[in-house]
Amino acid sequence: MKDHLVKATAEGVRIYAAVTTDLVNEAIRRHDCHAVAAAALGRTMTGALLLAANLKNQEALTVTFDGHGPLGRVTADATPEGFVRGYVGNPHVDLPQNAQGKIDVGGGVGTDGTVTVTRFTGLRNPVTGSAPLTDGEIADDLTKYLYVSEQTPSSVGLGVLIGHAGDQLACIGAGGFILQPLPDVSDEVLDRLEANLRAVKSVSRMVDEGYDAKGIIAAVLKGFDIHYLTQTELAFRCHCSKQRVSEILLSLGEKDLKSLVEDGHAEACCPFCGERYQFTGEELQAIYDHAMADRRDAQG
Predict the structure, then answer these.
(1) I need a labelling partner for 255 at 20 to 30 A (CA). Which of 102, 180, 264, 274 fits?
(2) Buried b vs exposed e over 147-167: b needs ≥16 C-beta within 10 Å?
(3) Contact present, 79 and 60 (Cβ < 8 Å)
(4) How many domains would you assign to the chain?
(5) pTM summary value
(6) pLDDT value of residue 280
(7) For residue range 147-177, what is the model confidence (pLDDT) as tens digits?
């Protein structure tokens, strides 16, 4: 089952659900994540994709959890076209299981901080909102963010089930949903939703058992008349490139550029995907010459 996201409506509510197992495994591979980091990053990337599903094409958003826990910052970028990338500050954190016998994502993320969502909508300045963290477990924090910062009552469910493929750590089921009542929803519908949410299995368990995104929606909206809308394929994709890194190097000061030229070699690593870009002495000299020429032209 390829990773995908489905949108649907039903009797005064809308819901987006996603299966993200493969892209979480790609993040684990790229960042060499241990279990706590894999679960935290996987939930954050899934949540970012669900939030981005409400954007227009060519827009994007960034979700950042900064709870001052041992994982450091957990960040994900996502687009409505279904692309996501993400990273965690300290991917090798190991913690004991929490009181429920599960991976301690909240202990890894921490609770002394905020969740921040920045939307890039094509306007001159991006739109940023934030909310204090509740438990660092990602889903409840996004639920609180949507209510506090965007005044949108929601229920967010996220799950990442971690196991092993041979001797390698692996995600064996990941996904999530965002459920939002529309303004004209009735109290009777809200009562049915609350009963369903109390009874539904965890998202990661549903994915592990073979549920697709439509199956997750059907479970959450059991007994509802569901109207399925669009389906979007999802993938871990970074837009870094050697050209983009070159442009960053061009913006460095003359002293820093000259130092790189004297070293005769430079390596840059993208924090989002782990891709490494090598620059030879000749390439660095060309970047230095280009930068100096641009600055002379700017000075007249």
Answers:
(1) 274
(2) eebeeeebbbbbbbbbeeeee
(3) yes
(4) 2
(5) 0.91
(6) 93
(7) 999 999 999 999 999 998 878 899 999 999 9
Give the number of C-alpha atoms closer than 13 A to the C-alpha of residue 253, restricted to the C-beta side.
Answer: 2
Between β-strands 265-269 and 127-132, what pairing exists: parallel, antiparallel or unpaired?
unpaired
pLDDT of 300:
64
Judge if 155 and 223 occupy the same domain: yes
- Residue 131: count other Cβ atoms within 10 Å of its Cβ: 19
Of 236, 257, 280, which one is at a domain's C-terminal end? 236
Is residue 14 pLDDT above 90, yes or no? yes
Same domain, 110 and 166: yes
Its domain, for residue 255, covers: 242-298
Which of 13, 85, 14, 8 has its CA nearest to residue 49? 85
Q: Specify the CATH number for the domain of residue 279.
A: 3.90.1280.10
Identify whether residues 279 and 164 lie together within a single domain: no
- pLDDT tens for 229-271 read 999 999 999 989 999 999 999 988 889 999 999 999 999 999 9
Strands 227-233 vs 60-66: parallel, antiparallel or unpaired? unpaired
Q: Please, which residues have CB within 8 angstroms of residue 253's CB and are 6 or more apart in sequence?
A: none
Using the 3D structure, point to which of 236, 266, 281 is the last residue of a domain. 236
Same domain, residue pair 232 and 253 = no
Residues 141 and 163 in one domain: yes
Biggest distance spanned by C-alpha atoms of the chain: 72
Question: What are the two backbone dihedrals, phi and then psi, of residue 129, each rounded to the nearest 5 degrees?
Answer: -135, 160
Q: How does pLDDT run across 21-74, given as a tens digit for each residue?
A: 999 999 999 999 999 999 999 999 999 999 999 998 889 999 999 999 999 999
